[in-house]
């Protein structure tokens, strides 16, 4: 099954590039140039590039490290993204096999690979690296390799903002397993390290430990709000938007659906027959709160990629064969559409 799954993951990436017709376009749209700038120049407090502090450092750092192979940042960034997606998909499958059947575990990974926004796994974005580190963290922890799990979780925290929620999950798991005080202390200590590193980077560049927060508010319109406020705003745009502004309505509808479905999946994760592990439920719950607790929800459909338990729940819902086939067809069509849009510089979440 691993070999078949590996082949599928490879084919899915090639299909995305074939649909778009331009591979390097995936290294040149929206946030992609920001990561390439950081890989080449690092953070700065001058010009528009001073706003890039909100992008965490591990992915651009790895692009710079691996660039000695290809000597081209765009090609390197795509290599890193696709390589970590394939590795992440395989480790995620092995993680799922600890609790579920071979067939079901493969289905979860397949649903992840064909999800409409999975094009970002093959673009100059950190989603692939995040998937790899997420799966490695949980897999290592389950196998009793605490040090590897903590190192991986630290890297995860320096990859995407969602990484910070891994620490309360590991803490709760350690309490459930009745780990020793020393192991619990290690989890707390390791959790503080990546946070301290990022805050120190902020201070070194801006002389302000929390510069990123001000930039998020002023430049990226990200301010704290109760989840239903942002969801209501998205639905309001989708339903009451001006008919001539169909693009805005389309974006509002997609954001509203993503956030609403994400919240509806929370009670579904608690259904006993679904057999969702408590650690995944906690991670998923915290992740949904994190991305929806803003007055302006943006990129919700993409953020679901950073919540892998979402796809476990989705696979459970798609148990009836007809519903499963319909979703796979719809998902592949939407993935093709968004991949083409993204390659042409149109908003694709």
Task: Characterise this structure.
The chain has helices spanning 2-20, 32-41, 58-70, 73-96, 102-113, 127-142, 146-157, 166-176, 181-206, 211-218, 227-240, 246-269, 278-292, 300-303, 309-317, 321-343. With 349 residues, it is an all-alpha fold. It has a domain at 2-220 and 320-343. The two termini are 32 Å apart.
Structure class: mainly alpha
Distance between the termini: 32 Å
Integer-rounded radius of gyration: 20 Å
Number of strands: 0
Task: Determine the strand fraction and express it as a percent band.
Answer: under 5%
Low-confidence stretches: none
Helix content: 55-70%
Please tally the helical runs, counting DSSP H or I stretches of 4 or more residues: 16
In short:
This protein is mainly α and 349 residues long. The chain has helices at 2-20, 32-41, 58-70, 73-96, 102-113, 127-142, 146-157, 166-176, 181-206, 211-218, 227-240, 246-269, 278-292, 300-303, 309-317, 321-343. The chain has a domain at 2-220 and 320-343.
Could you name the key traits of this structure?
mainly alpha; 349 residues; 69% helix
Secondary-structure blueprint:
Layout lengths: L1 H19 L11 H10 L16 H13 L2 H24 L5 H12 L13 H16 L3 H12 L8 H11 L4 H26 L4 H8 L8 H14 L5 H24 L8 H15 L7 H4 L5 H9 L3 H23 L6
Helix pairs in contact: 1-4, 1-5, 1-16, 2-3, 3-4, 4-5, 4-6, 5-15, 6-7, 7-9, 8-9, 8-13, 11-12, 12-13
């Amino acid at each position: 099954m691993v070999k078949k799954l590996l082949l599928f993951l490879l084919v899915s990436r090639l299909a995305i590039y074939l649909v778009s017709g331009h591979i390097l376009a995936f290294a040149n749209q929206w946030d992609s140039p920001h990561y390439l700038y950081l890989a080449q120049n690092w953070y700065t407090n001058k010009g528009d590039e001073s706003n890039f502090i909100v992008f965490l450092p591990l992915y651009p750092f790895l692009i710079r490290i691996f660039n000695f192979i290809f000597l081209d940042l765009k090609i390197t960034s795509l290599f890193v993204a696709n390589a970590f997606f394939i590795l992440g998909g395989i480790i995620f499958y092995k993680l799922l096999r600890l609790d579920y059947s071979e067939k079901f575990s493969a289905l979860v990974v397949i649903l992840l690979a064909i999800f409409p926004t999975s094009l970002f796994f093959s673009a100059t974005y950190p989603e692939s690296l995040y998937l790899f580190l997420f799966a490695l963290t949980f897999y290592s922890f389950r196998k009793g390799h605490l040090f590897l799990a903590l190192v991986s979780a630290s890297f995860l925290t320096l990859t995407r903002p969602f990484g910070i929620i891994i620490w309360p999950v590991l803490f709760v798991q350690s309490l459930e397993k009745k780990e020793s005080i020393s192991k619990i202390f290690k989890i707390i200590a390791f959790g503080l390290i990546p946070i301290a590193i990022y805050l120190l980077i902020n201070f070194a560049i801006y002389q302000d430990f929390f510069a990123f927060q001000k930039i998020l508010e002023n430049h990226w319109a990200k301010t704290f709000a109760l989840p239903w406020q942002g969801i209501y705003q998205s639905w309001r745009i989708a339903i009451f938007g001006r008919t001539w502004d169909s693009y805005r309505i389309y974006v509002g509808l997609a954001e509203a659906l993503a956030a609403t479905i994400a919240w509806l999946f929370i009670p579904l994760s608690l259904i006993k027959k679904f057999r969702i592990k408590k650690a995944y439920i906690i991670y998923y719950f915290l992740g949904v709160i994190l991305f929806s607790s803003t007055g302006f929800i943006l990129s919700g459909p993409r953020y679901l990629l950073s919540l892998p338990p979402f796809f476990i729940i989705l696979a459970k819902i798609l148990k009836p064969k007809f519903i499963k086939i319909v979703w796979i067809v719809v998902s592949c069509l939407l993935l093709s559409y968004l991949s083409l849009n993204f390659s042409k510089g149109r908003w694709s979440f």
